[in-house]
């Protein structure tokens, strides 16, 4: 057996080359890790952007659909109220012979719609001379569920100067009044809107302005029912990517003020935010802070009235899936980097073992 003697200077050169190769392998490993990291960062950014766009698109379709359904349901309810009110008004028009026949006509149809608080006929001054200047019989619900008849016209309640009365005389057509607050110290005080129609006698003279009063209690209940239906709808939510259904529906007036809401949740839209969209009965959406929370507000008009339905969607609940997806992608990236590092490390060990074997030979 012969022993190969390596000169000292050659051994030093060999050792230096091995160190350089080891250093090169380390740099090569670092370059690979950086390259993989760069690729993963690009993949994560593209994936998050794509997920964000998909969520926005689903969000838009989902809540625009819910908004349209809410608008249609409320419009149908209001349309039913109008039809029932018209039956009452027609009955009054047929019985303008005396104050007693007018009251009897109002009483005969009061049970047509439980959502209407009361019906009235506000007569022109001295139309019935014996009743004087203010004659306004009002048939309305009381807490017991029965109906009572009251004469509410008076100097204190001079309905001739009310906006709805003046508008009815000038327009000669039916309409819904702007929301208002009525107070007379009795149980009928409250926030109302009124469906109004001018009534003419056989000679074509204006006899009275009939109205059907509606409080906003039923509307708040209707909004709550609509929201609950949407949250519990299996077909609507079965394929949704949302982790939360944090939204609520309100009804806003033509001036942007909230006139009906659920659980005290509200939103106000200003003309600076939506322009003339509410006045022109246009649909739209806007991003703004609602009670300090960044939100998207979708709004669309309601038929028959100058109101709009608005669905308020806080961003926090909508973007939870994006956060979850980002966390999953981050974990995958870390695991990918660990796997690449382990592979590079194994290659270094195999290279070192191979070089050690060559030295022993």
Tell me how many strands there are.
Answer: 12
Q: In DSSP terms, counting alpha (H) and pi (I) runs of 4 or more, how many helices?
A: 8
User: What is the mean predicted local confidence, pLDDT?
Assistant: 80
Backbone CA Rg: 38 Å
Strand proportion: 15-25%
User: How many angstroms does the end-to-end distance come to?
Assistant: 13 Å
Quaternary organisation of the protein chains: single chain
Shape: rod-shaped
* Low-confidence residue ranges: none
| Largest sheet properties | 7 strands, antiparallel
Overall structural class, as computed from helix and strand content, comes to alpha+beta
Percent helix among the residues? 40-55%
> What is the string of SSEs from the N terminus onward?
HHEEEHEEEEHHEEHEEEHH
Can you tell me about this structure?
The chain is an alpha+beta fold. 48% of the residues lie in helices and 20% in strands. It is built from 8 helices and 12 strands. It has helices spanning 8-94, 99-108, 163-171, 217-232, 234-237, 271-274, 315-318, 320-360, and strands at residues 118-123, 137-141, 147-151, 175-176, 180-182, 190-200, 206-215, 248-252, 258-260, 284-290, 293-301, 308-314. Strands 1, 2, 3, 4, 5, 6 and 7 form a 7-stranded antiparallel sheet that branches. A 5-stranded antiparallel sheet has the order 9-8-12-11-10. The chain is rod-shaped. The two termini are 13 Å apart. The relative contact order is 0.13. The mean pLDDT is 80.
